[in-house]
Specification:
mainly alpha, 0% strand, globular, 6 helices, 147 residues
């Protein structure tokens, strides 16, 4: 799990720097193209035969595409804020699906931590960037549900 989180965070930081040269859509194209090439080299899945399989694939594809909304958000927001807003999706999912008070408490503490870092001050952030980062987080939560 730590390796996965480190990979995502380093990838976003690298993507933010790379977007200055190739743009947000270029970063997404490079990221998805490289991932597809690596996966096809390692594993060739069978062509889906049923509509149920196709719906699942479409759901995963839509969620992954939506998760990449973080890259346009990174072009207009600081890395830490965009990443924190994106993580509100999985934190909200954990909060809404929890069955124990301890889980709720952990999700609330994480949400308060995000708020403390970026509490309203004299600084305002572009609404478009905030919406893109939150949409990316919602798609990340959807990806987790599909998984």
């Amino acid at each position: 799990m730590v390796g996965s989180v480190l990979s995502v965070q380093f990838g976003q930081a690298f993507g933010k720097q790379l977007s200055e040269d190739v743009g947000a859509s270029g970063v997404v194209a490079l990221r998805l193209g490289l991932a597809a090439a690596v996966l096809l080299a390692l594993y060739r899945p069978a062509v889906p035969r049923s509509w149920a399989e196709r719906r699942v694939i479409l759901g995963f594809g839509t969620a992954i595409a939506g998760m990449n909304l973080i890259y346009p958000a990174l072009t207009i927001l600081p890395l830490g804020l965009a990443s924190a807003l994106q993580l509100l999706g999985p934190i909200s999912l954990a909060l809404f699906t929890s069955r124990r008070i301890r889980d709720v408490a952990c999700a609330v503490v994480a949400g308060v931590g995000v708020w403390l870092f970026y509490a309203p001050r004299d600084v305002s952030f572009p609404l478009a960037g905030v919406v893109l980062a939150l949409a990316s987080g919602a798609c990340m939560a959807a990806y987790f549900l599909l998984s």
